[in-house]
């Protein structure tokens, strides 16, 4: 991501550095209408200090929308989640640590205060 001054210094301000038609754009849109971002005064402060990844509702990279309405539309999320589960399972098996993700049998047997 390049701002206009950096783009000018690199002589690429004709293609990057500002949000204009025909230029490359990397931008995120943040939903400010959330309890932890209220009240709406001081929006820059609220975004920089309190916003998090879960508040990003839309992402655009190189002018292409990758996420919209909180959903990644550029990849198949279900396929990735399945693959991650399979890889994690194989990794635990290969490392001899298959027992680690399981809760100990006594975890819920008695109170722990």
UniProtKB/TrEMBL annotation:
Domain Amidohydrolase-related, chain residue ranges per copy? 1-65
Question: GO molecular function terms here?
Answer: hydrolase activity, acting on carbon-nitrogen (but not peptide) bonds
Q: Does the keyword Secreted apply?
A: no
Membrane-crossing ranges are none
Identification of the protein by name: Amidohydrolase
* The family this protein is said to belong to: Belongs to the metallo-dependent hydrolases superfamily. ATZ/TRZ family.
The record's Pfam families line, in alphabetical order, gives: Amidohydro_1
What keywords were assigned to this record? Hydrolase
- Do the record's keywords include Disulfide bond? no
């Amino acid at each position: 991501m390049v701002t206009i001054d950096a783009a000018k210094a690199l002589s690429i301000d004709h293609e990057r550095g500002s949000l204009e038609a025909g230029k490359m754009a990397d931008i995120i849109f943040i939903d400010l209408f959330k309890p932890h971002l209220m009240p709406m005064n001081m929006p820059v402060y609220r975004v920089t200090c309190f916003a998090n990844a879960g508040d990003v509702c839309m992402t655009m990279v190189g002018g292409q929308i990758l996420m919209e309405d909180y959903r990644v539309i550029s990849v198949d999320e279900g396929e990735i989640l399945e693959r991650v589960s399979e890889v994690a399972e194989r990794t635990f098996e290969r490392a001899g640590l298959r027992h680690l993700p399981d809760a100990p049998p006594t975890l819920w047997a008695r109170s722990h205060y």
